[in-house]
Specification:
By secondary structure, the chain is α+β, with helices and mostly antiparallel strands. The chain is built from 6 helices and 12 strands. It is an enzyme of class 1 (oxidoreductase).
Length: 291
């Protein structure tokens, strides 16, 4: 009875793990990039996965073969060598190949780490659009300094144009993430981080806070709509026509811990982002990463 349970336990466990992981893929967004940063990060994932598989797949297959080949049964014909202890060729193979592959992974990692430095401007003949993103409890405030408009929990961006995000927090540390456009970056009080992304095609992309931050953490999601330049300008004009402006008093109310619906503001106080960054700074200027 025990042998039967052992025989079927491993396959059942593997199947259970596959079912559980299938619900955590977020539709494999990181493997379906829609921008240059996301595409490079996907390529690095593929390269490292393939190189690791060169080591792992043979090891897993050999482990299964060894367990079966040298199983304890009366009719097993496996060669018995009780005094065997060393093979220079075997040790060269199982140490040499992983060392070479780790070296190759290191080269690719260094190359992509430098190329994907978050504050590094993207190659483009178009001027970047600056968007200031502030993580609050439990919502995202986005201000467009060039357009003098603000939104809560949603973004509009022009396609095929670099977006220069400036990020900070007026709440516990969080993490800004648009999976199909690029990797996450932390938002921290008293710091201004910079992240350059770009959408290569129109679409609606999922965004979220990727760092647990309390009771309504699950509400820190936002949609990113990438449109043509003409449609983006029309959207800006539409927001300019809304009746509400974000005042300092309104911001203080917005910053209170609570979830928030989508909101739009036709203006916001000048220098609001810098005020938020320097809110917790004492006797010295705040740190601006990448500037």
């Amino acid at each position: 009875m025990r042998r039967k349970l052992t025989k079927y336990a491993a396959p059942l466990l593997i199947m259970l793990m596959m079912v559980m992981l299938s619900g955590c893929s977020t539709n494999m967004m990181v493997l379906d990039p829609k921008g240059p940063v996301g595409a490079d990060q996907r390529d690095l994932i593929y390269i490292v996965t393939i190189l690791c598989a060169i080591i792992m797949v043979p090891v897993i297959l050999l482990t299964a073969w060894i367990v079966w080949r040298y199983r304890d049964t009366k009719d097993n014909k496996a060669k018995y060598m009780p005094t065997w202890s060393h093979s220079a060729l075997a040790e060269t193979i199982w140490w040499g190949i992983p060392i070479i592959i780790i070296g190759i992974i290191g080269v690719f990692t260094v190359k992509y780490t430098y190329a994907l430095e978050p504050s590094k401007p993207l190659d483009s003949d178009k001027k970047p659009l600056v968007i200031e993103a502030t993580s609050l409890d439990w919502k995202w405030l986005f201000t467009y300094p060039e357009q003098d408009i603000a939104t809560v929990n949603y973004l509009y961006i022009p396609e095929d144009r670099p977006i220069e995000f400036h990020l900070t927090s007026d709440a516990p540390m969080n993490s800004f993430w648009i999976p199909q456009l690029g990797g996450q970056i932390y938002t921290m009080s008293g710091m201004s981080m910079k992240l350059n992304l770009q959408a290569d095609e129109p679409g609606v992309y999922y965004g979220s806070g990727a760092n647990f931050s309390g009771e309504h953490f699950a509400d820190m999601r936002f949609e990113v709509t990438a449109t043509s330049d003409e449609e983006f300008n029309q959207w800006v004009d539409k927001i300019k026509a809304v009746p509400d402006a974000l005042t300092l008093e309104g911001y203080e109310k917005l910053a209170e811990p609570a979830s928030s619906p989508v909101q739009s503001f036709n203006s916001f106080p000048e220098g609001l982002f810098n005020k938020i960054v320097n809110k917790y700074v004492v006797d010295k200027p705040a740190h601006h990463h990448g500037e």
